Amino acid sequence: MSKKILIIDDVVFNIEFEANLLQSLMDELNVQMQIDTAICVKDAVALIEKNDYHAMIIDMNLPDGSGVDIAKAAHKKNPKSYLAGITIFPDAYEDVHEHFDLFLKKPIVLETYKENFSRLLQID
């Protein structure tokens, strides 16, 4: 089984941290994974148009728009993609939860992140 995942965040450290957590999780579960990254809505949408992603981790507050813009583009391309929104202010996005399968709160807690992402990918 192989998973193609897109991580979108405007902070490179966050992308690296999340990619390392995902790689650790996938290694534990013996699942192959390819990770692509983007630092803005424009780059994310361009990648979505060219690729088919199993899942995306989307920072909700980006310099050139909202994670909701990315979620809409993702669902237009592939309604079966699993989407996780991530933010330090989850209450500010209560009205857009229907665009996401999961919401994660920053700062990231290792075990909670792994557990939630396993559920998001539907990996037992």
Describe the structure concisely for a colleague.
Helix content is 40%, strand content 27%.
Give a structural overview.
The protein is of the alpha/beta class and 124 residues long. It has a single domain (10-119), classed as 3-Layer(aba) Sandwich (Rossmann fold), CATH 3.40.50.2300. It has 4 helices and 7 strands, in the order βαβαβββαββα. A 5-stranded parallel beta sheet has the order 2-1-3-6-7, with helices on both faces. A two-stranded antiparallel sheet has the order 4-5. Helix 2 packs parallel to helix 3 (67-77). The longest helix has 18 residues, at 12-29. The radius of gyration is 13 Å and the shape is globular.
Topology record:
Blueprint: E1 2-8, H1 12-29, E2 32-38, H2 41-50, E3 55-59, E4 61-62, E5 65-66, H3 67-77, E6 82-87, E7 102-105, H4 110-120
Parallel strand pairs: 1-2, 1-3, 3-6, 6-7
Antiparallel strand pairs: 4-5
Strands ordered across the widest β-sheet: 2-1-3-6-7
SSE string: EHEHEEEHEEH
Radius of gyration: 13 Å
* The first-level CATH class name: Alpha Beta
Query: Which strand-content bin applies to the residues?
Result: 25-35%
**Tell me, what's the shape?**
globular
Helical segment count:
4
CATH superfamily: Response regulator
What structural class results from the helix and strand content? alpha/beta
Largest sheet: 5 strands, parallel
The percent range for helix content is 40-55%
Could you say how many structural domains there are in total?
1
CATH architecture: 3-Layer(aba) Sandwich
Number of strands: 7
Unreliable spans are none
Average pLDDT across residues?
Answer: 88
What is the CATH topology descriptor? Rossmann fold
Whole-Å distance between the termini? 13 Å
